[in-house]
Amino acid sequence: IENDTEELETACSRLALLFPAGKVLSSSDVEAVLSRNRQEDAFSLFARMISGEPEWALEALDTVLQDRQGGAVQILAALVWSFRRLLRLQRLAGEGESFDTACLKCGIRARSLQALHRGAMSRYSLEDCERIIGLASEVDGMVRSSGSGLERTLLELFVLGAMKEKGRLRLSAPAF
User: Fold this and answer.
1) CB 157 within 8 A of CB 58
2) 67 or 44: which carries more pLDDT confidence?
3) What is the distance between the terminal CA atoms of the chain, rounded to a whole angstrom?
4) Buried residues in 122-143 as b, exposed as e (16+ CB within 10 A)
5) What is the longest distance spanned by two Cα atoms in the chain?
């Protein structure tokens, strides 16, 4: 949950309803309940991709697609936006900016988002971000030309290509 008192109260109320009074909860009990009830969108999908756990990211993608919070083009656009912001952070850091200053220049003010981007910077280099953005462009073109029948498969390939191959995945046939 975000750093918000109302969300915390809601989450605690949910836990109180699901578990008997007096039960000692482990962190895995709490995470299991919260993850089942968490709203997913393309921006939380980005966070799952940063985690380095493909199963978790694909589960988030599945939730986003089931909830129809946008089609493949909109999901890709949001992911590209996130990777471009990460690319900008990498460039600013490469130019000698401190992480905090780079975050401010990129409009990342919330501590939770800063922590997410710090992890993302250690996972994805500037070159990785450039390749991932290129892969997203390739997938976007394929989604637009193939229709909705292949959306899920293409998005899954993008997520896995970004996470495991860091954008080195090529989906188009090589030219002869």
Assistant:
1) no
2) 44
3) 51
4) eebebebbbbbbebbebbbebb
5) 69
Cα separation, 47 vs 45, in Å, equals 5
Structure tokens at 66: 């089931």
Q: Residue 77: is it exposed, middle or buried by C-beta count within 10 angstroms (0-12/13-18/19+)?
A: middle
Which DSSP letter does residue 95 get? Answer: T
Residue position matching structure tokens 């997938």: 139
Quickly tell me which residue has 């089609």 as its tokens: 71
Q: Are 52 and 116 in contact (CB under 8 A)?
A: no
Q: Any idea which residue has 């008192």 for tokens?
A: 5
Residue 158 φ/ψ, nearest 5 degrees? -60, -50
pTM of the model: 0.75
Q: Which residues contact 30 (CB under 8 A, 6 or more apart)?
A: 15
Two tokens at 62? 């599945």
The residue among 45, 107, 106 whose CA lies nearest residue 77 is 45
Kindly report, residue by residue over 91-105, the tens digit of the pLDDT: 999 999 999 999 999
User: 168 by DSSP, 3-state: which?
Assistant: coil
